[in-house]
């Protein structure tokens, strides 16, 4: 269950980062509130995950999910353009996250 919590925490990291972008510098109250709620939920589920998983395992996976998710949201929602080399490094992030999971023994 700790891995489920960790994935949920990573997804809420993407939610709050996206809401923060949409808040336009916290000038839109709805998206500003969504940012704070997303942060709270992300930290809550990360804390739940770290009850079982070590911090040295959970934190990089959490940030990796947030990073890759934010890249995908940037491309899909905000029409951001990435170079081929950037995509290579995003793929390496995904490979690294999977590698951490596989090698963790959990």
Fold blueprint:
Blueprint: H1 2-22, H2 29-49, H3 55-76, H4 84-104
Short overview:
The protein is mainly alpha-helical and 106 residues long. It has four helices and no strands.
Question: Mind explaining what this structure looks like?
Answer:
The protein is mainly α. The chain has one domain. It is about 80% helix and about 0% strand. The chain has helices spanning about 1-20, 30-50, 55-75, 85-105. The longest helix has 22 residues, at about 55-75. The relative contact order is 0.17. The mean pLDDT is about 95. GO terms for molecular function: transmembrane transporter activity.
Number of strands: 0
Average pLDDT for all residues: 96
Query: Helical proportion?
Result: over 70%
Q: Provide a count of the helices.
A: 4
SSE order, one letter for each helix or strand: HHHH
SS-based class? mainly alpha
Separation of the first and last Cα atoms: 10 Å
Features:
80% helix; 106 residues; flat; mainly alpha; single chain
């Amino acid at each position: 269950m700790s891995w489920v919590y960790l994935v949920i925490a990573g997804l809420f990291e993407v939610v709050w980062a996206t809401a923060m972008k949409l808040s336009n510098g916290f000038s839109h109250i709805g998206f500003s509130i969504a940012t704070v709620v997303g942060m709270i939920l992300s930290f809550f589920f990360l804390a739940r995950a770290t009850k079982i998983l070590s911090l040295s395992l959970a934190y990089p996976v959490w940030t990796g999910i947030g990073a890759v998710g934010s890249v995908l949201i940037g491309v899909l929602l905000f029409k951001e353009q990435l170079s081929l080399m950037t995509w290579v490094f995003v793929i390496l992030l995904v490979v690294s996250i999977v590698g951490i999971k596989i090698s963790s023994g959990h």
